């Protein structure tokens, strides 16, 4: 799941696994595999960056099939973004 900002500044969390396409027209439009379209304030490259970071976090969990113990994680805050991540040490 990644957090993005709707064009009216409301935050929304979307399932990154269900993104079919991201377009700049000139606003950024995320098309989900369900056909739903979401107009967001972030640029295409920012949405892609968030998806990549999400997958980097979730992929080891999927490969090992071991649930992530968040007590062993540190919170990583990016001062240039609202994204706060938990990474396993």
Placed side by side, the strands forming the largest sheet appear as 3-4-5
Question: What portion of residues belong to β-strands?
Answer: 35-45%
> What's the average pLDDT?
84
Portion of residues in helices?
10-25%
Poorly predicted runs of 5 or more residues = none
N/C terminus separation: 20 Å
Radius of gyration: 14 Å
Q: Mind summarizing the main beta sheet?
A: 3 strands, antiparallel
The secondary structure category is: alpha+beta
Helix and strand element order: EEEEEHEE
| Count of beta strands | 7
How many helical elements?
Answer: 1
Principal-axes shape call: globular
Structure overview:
This protein is of the alpha+beta class. Helix content is 24%, strand content 37%. It is built from one helix and seven strands. Strands 3-4-5 form a three-stranded antiparallel beta sheet, with helices on one face. A two-stranded antiparallel ribbon has the order 1-2. Strand 4 and strand 5 (37-40) form a beta hairpin. The mean pLDDT is 84.
Summarize the structure.
By secondary structure, this protein is an alpha+beta fold. The chain is built from 1 helix and 7 strands.
Features:
89 residues; alpha+beta; two-stranded antiparallel ribbon; 24% helix; 37% strand
Write the layout of secondary structure elements.
Elements: E1 2-5, E2 11-14, E3 19-24, E4 28-32, E5 37-40, H1 44-64, E6 73-77, E7 84-88
Antiparallel strand pairs: 1-2, 3-4, 4-5, 6-7
